[in-house]
Amino acid sequence: MAERNPETHVIDFRAAEQLLAARDPRGAVKLLDSVIAEHPENTAARLLRARAFFAAAQLRPAQLEFELVLEREPDNAFAHFALARTLQRSGQDVRATRHFRLAAALDPRPEYVEAAGFDTRD
Q1: InterPro entries from the entry (predicted)?
Q2: With left for phi above 0 and alpha for psi between -120 and 50, is residue 5 left, alpha or beta?
């Protein structure tokens, strides 16, 4: 096996982004597992892995990763939104609504505001 170094992990991370974009979330997860094993504090890698788990319909692992990201970055609007989508898909609507609202409060993007159910008409 080739020697693993920081440059290899950056390459793996970028390749995982490409795999996810090419609709191969399981391949992305495989690459990210080694990156996260060496750099468990890397929030970007964890967020990408959470997205890959979600895309692969592995909802429980996705939920755990999004929650870990939010422990480290409680003001990450995208992570709140993605966690809410994950919770929604797994039938946890009350918890999902809370995270949709947090996402919209942190970043009033139209899709976040709409998902939160906020009325923007005044």
Answers
A1: TPR-like_helical_dom_sf
A2: beta
